């Protein structure tokens, strides 16, 4: 007989033979926190902002949203050290999309931090990191996939759900496909490059409730994979939720209603 | 609180690398076997060293491959609860793809079985069923969608316990540069549907454990296979079994084979496939 597990979906309970990936352990500390806004006086600004979207991304799941120019996305690492694999596109013309090399070359630094500008393949600002509670954020580690898992961990991992599956599934909802996936950002993931060039994913520097805030510099489409990886420390071997909060500056909201 | 992280030493790059490399000795119930000759369940009569594809597809999983003309593709349902949803494409021109309507109309037969061709919309045989010990297949109901899976199971999330067939086909297709517009109706193997006199579609389910279906590729094929419950499967649980896939080289249906002239229609389909293949220098 094929092994089954039991899942509760809303008010239903189903048995399934699908080898669903692991969710966080009982007793895991979760801190949903709240919006993080730009500027030194972050909380004062955040209170003035209007929340236009506030969603939780379940462990292992994909997510996407459109932001208008000027809106801010706060990503909360609710359980700590949970990689938020992240892609961003010009919402008006998705041929313009996030570019790791343009972002890194422009800032002449391999890590993302407060003030980093997320640049497109045309060199233009898509978003700006206006708030950041982690020492450094990753954009060189790429996304996990069932295929690359076989290279890193062995063929026995090929059936496991991965970020590339999430990216493809979510991208398809916006008419995008494999050719639209590029090197991504991994918020809350830690990929040091050592003096001799050695690099890899190691234990994270985040903690429950840590946040990053991104201001849209143009209308953007954001696609996120809440990373399902359980073979390396990018999720602390304990997949937890992400909270996504989109806020509009109070002034911009008034202008929109004018 | 003890956690899985306690079993891993990953606080430096070299420690993380060692931790990753130490995992490679593991196996899983659902995995590809590489090289294919290492398959634990080689079909009877097949030389394991000739295998070009060997894999056990997980419940809710999918697989996909480009296979050469003449390749034999065998699907096994070891538990009697697999459901192999299949779409075929001419690998050289993927706008030529399985046409389920022609596949049942041209042979004058709705139920798939040995000798049944899988036809494209371009008048060619993409594949032929060369063996079938199940006899429970379906050409009417296609596969599940997020809409139908959500209605049945409460969720169709790609990471969840009840993914839809179409969402799995989308992922498989994406890996060959194809998208939703490239997903025609699929056929499914190992879970039967019968058409009643009034047109009613009756789910007849599985023929039991240990059946298999074998196809031969009449052209170079892109094969997409999804293993999810049949849309008419009455269970509100998602209880699909593992699916085994093996492939090895062989010859397409050619003059002299009894199958080549089995019916006038299929004969012309093979002539069309051969005509195409010869012009391409295959
Ligand atoms: Zn991942």
From TrEMBL, chain A:
Origin superkingdom: Bacteria
Pfam families, sorted: DUF1989
Domain DUF1989 positions: 55-221
PANTHER family: RE64534P
NCBIfam families, A to Z: urea_degr_1
Stated name of the protein: DUF1989 domain-containing protein
Organism (species): Agreia pratensis
TrEMBL record, chain B:
Disordered: region residues: 138-165
Residue ranges of domain DUF1989 in the record: 55-222
A Pfam family per the record: DUF1989
Coiled coil: none
Entry-linked PANTHER family: RE64534P
Protein name: DUF1989 domain-containing protein
Organism: Agreia pratensis
Lineage of source species: Bacteria, Bacillati, Actinomycetota, Actinomycetes, Micrococcales
